[in-house]
Amino acid sequence: MTDKPNSISAKDTTYHLHPYTNLKAHEEQGPLVITRGEGVRVFGEDGKEYIEGLSGLWCASLGFNEPRLVKAAQKQMETLPFYHSFTGKVPDVTAELAEKLVDVTPDGLDRALFCNSGSEANDTAIKLVWYYNNARGKPEKKKIISREKAYHGVTIAAGSMTGLAYAQNGFDLPASERILQTSCPHYYRYGLDGESEEAFATRMASELEELILAEGPETVGAMFAEPIQGAGGVILPPMGYFEKIQAVLKKYDVLLIADEVICGFGRTGKMFGSQTYNIKPDMMTLAKQMSSGYLPISALMVSDGLYQVVKERSNELGVFGHGLTYGGHPVPCAVALEVLKIYEERDIVAQVNAISPYFQDRLATYADHPLVGEVRGTGLIGAIELSADKASKTPFDPSLGMGAGLVKKCENHGLILRAMPGDCVAFCPPLISEQTDLDALFSRFDAALAEM
Ligand code: PMP
């Protein structure tokens, strides 16, 4: 009989199938084992300290040891550790959270449907588009448009919308011909020579319109869009983009779903990315910073108009036949309620606006660096895109792994960041970051960049 592995590292490489990891390389290299968090920092099992420059996975807005969230979870665990929302029942905190979310989200979003992850919320949104259009007597109107470099999750439907090869290769995704893709509106990368940002936005909207017309507007049900495309490389929309896109969608009666899984709750300097970019969505998906990442929870927000149609249809069918065992679970709901209370008490949006000019200014200094093609960002999110030739914007040969290499060097210097496709390095520090935290973050980044 072989001995069982003793170390955490060996247990991990022996028993754990890792998400978003090169599995073969991982077996040789082993994991970075994280055991503890404090403020904007996490600590390895060897005690090494890291600044979490991506808030974990864009979610730990309140850092890694907010005691009020621990108390909220404990209190809820002691009072009602589980209950569901099926068959007309509901935990008290779940109803409280629904009200609070309707309060904080923009006007026109009137009900919350709870799920456990961003992927589930987006899958649920697709189901509602289909249900809604069946109910409206438009059973053909089912196609869904997302964008190249979009990230909407990994479940079969959400993964079909995620426009990134690494999330689809090998999985037979996209799994449905009902999922279509329009262009990624990254002006720096895809703007033509001499084309203004505004003209680029107009071209993006024309391409969307051409796609809708080619498919037949009577077959197109909805478009999904992140206000800022996060995992695609922190891609900010060009000026005027969402105004133009929304005019096209309105013209052809196509719903717009804002995926606010990363942008929601202050990240962009307003409560929602939709407010930063003048988006008036028919539905909105929320997750991550909704619970500061402390417990899994997500929500799909819908308009009253859509709700009324769904209500009538479910009455005809006898039941609204959708629900997840843990959707609206009382413990994450209690934590999310406390998170929203903290955001309100500390005026998290004002806090982001107070610190973000410093963050963006520091980030902007890298624009002159010979390895950097573009620096972009707003609020407390940003990215640096590496480029082999500044003037021609030529990307590095992907096989060089420049972005991943830089991120590895950052890790050696005690800074966790994430490399995105196209050698973009993303920054998304906790919303509680102070100037001294950002100073430490950038000095570690400087040290890593100097070694490239
Ligand atoms: N939408 C966006 C914009 C995301 O960034 C993510 C995850 N990074 C998701 C959806 C999927 O969320 P989850 O991983 O919780 O399923």
From TrEMBL:
Regions annotated as coiled coil: none
Protein name according to UniProt: Adenosylmethionine-8-amino-7-oxononanoate aminotransferase
Biological process annotations from GO: biotin biosynthetic process; gamma-aminobutyric acid metabolic process
NCBIfam families for the chain: PRK06105.1
Keyword Transferase attached: yes
Signal peptide region: none
InterPro entries linked to this entry: Aminotrans_3, Aminotrans_3_PPA_site, PyrdxlP-dep_Trfase, PyrdxlP-dep_Trfase_major, PyrdxlP-dep_Trfase_small
Organism, scientific name: Candidatus Terasakiella magnetica
Stored Pfam families: Aminotran_3
Family: Belongs to the class-III pyridoxal-phosphate-dependent aminotransferase family.
Molecular-function annotations in GO: adenosylmethionine-8-amino-7-oxononanoate transaminase activity; pyridoxal phosphate binding
Transmembrane segments: none
Record key words, sorted: Aminotransferase, Pyridoxal phosphate, Transferase
Cofactor(s) of this protein: pyridoxal 5'-phosphate
